[in-house]
Design a protein that fits this description.
By secondary structure, the chain is mainly alpha-helical. It has a domain at 49-101 and 147-222. 77% of the residues lie in helices and 5% in strands. It contains nine helices and four strands. The chain has helices at 2-6, 9-18, 28-49, 51-70, 76-98, 101-124, 127-143, 145-180, 203-235, and strands at residues 184-187, 190-194, 198-199, 201-202. The strands form two sheets. A two-stranded antiparallel ribbon has the order 1-2. A two-stranded antiparallel sheet has the order 3-4. Helix 3 (28-49) packs parallel to helix 8. It is elongated and about 70 Å long.
């Protein structure tokens, strides 16, 4: 009791300064965003592990996608190609606006520089500098912590739509193509490859990935180029009179 009485306002201020700051309460927009994220993740889990739920969602979007790109099952490779372009384009555009590319580039530059300095100090045996660089690295990771969680949020928001889209593709192959006997397609080494052939994944998944993923990479590079170009123009580094790299 006597010790508590001897503590003055200065001790109270020191204790408050040492205590961790309180986390701000989430805004209504953040709460709604978190609710939507959890709701979509739960729907994705149901669609993935409860066959009836996934099939119901797949048949529902099939009423829209079958007339658009199904072609009545006559051109399955064209359907997979259009499906790959559709999904990769939408996911690439969504990921582009989810991801702060400028801050991510800055984070990669900072972390790469710290790793190089740390390796150089370790090679020279300067352990004190290594410890300082590790501390700086931890500070930098905390500064860019929000960037590291963006990919997980993006996966949570889009996982449900990817699952029901792939469910529709599976129904298209298993029902539409199988009922028509149109499960064979030509590749350079065979004229009668089978869509149902499985090696880790069914053959139609490999066809979808082979046709769709490269297109998504092209779209992503174009969007990143436009984003960085606009940022450089805002900073005054790049103007209309700046010559191209090959002409510089």
């Amino acid at each position: 009791m006597a010790d508590e009485a001897e503590r003055g306002p200065k001790d109270e201020m020191d204790r408050d300064a040492k205590s961790p700051p309180m986390r701000p309460r989430p805004t209504p927009r953040q709460s709604l965003s978190r609710f939507i994220l959890f709701f979509l993740v739960i729907l994705a889990i149901y669609a993935m592990f409860v066959p009836g739920v996934g099939q119901a969602f797949g048949e529902a979007i099939g009423t829209v996608l079958n007339p658009l790109m199904g072609f009545g099952g006559r051109y399955p490779v064209a359907t997979l190609f259009l499906a790959g372009i559709f999904v990769t384009t939408l996911s690439t555009i969504a990921r582009h606006f989810f991801t702060p590319w400028i801050r991510m580039a800055r984070m990669n530059h900072v972390m790469s520089s710290l790793r190089k300095e740390q390796m150089e100090a370790f090679r020279k045996g300067n352990l004190s500098k290594v410890e300082k660089l590790r501390a700086r690295q931890q500070v930098a990771m905390k500064e860019f912590q929000d960037i590291q969680t963006i990919q997980f949020k993006f996966m949570g928001y889009t996982m449900f739509f990817f699952i029901i889209f792939f469910t529709w593709l599976r129904l298209f192959v298993d029902l539409t193509l199988a009922s028509q006997g149109n499960l064979l397609f030509a590749v350079p080494w065979s004229s009668s490859a089978y869509f149902g052939w499985t090696l880790m994944f069914p053959a139609w998944v490999f066809v979808y990935m082979l046709l769709g993923i490269p297109f998504g990479q092209v779209v992503q590079r174009i969007l990143k180029y436009l984003t960085f170009r606009r940022k450089l123009q805002e900073l005054g580094v790049l103007t209309e009179l700046t010559p191209p790299e090959d002409a510089a």
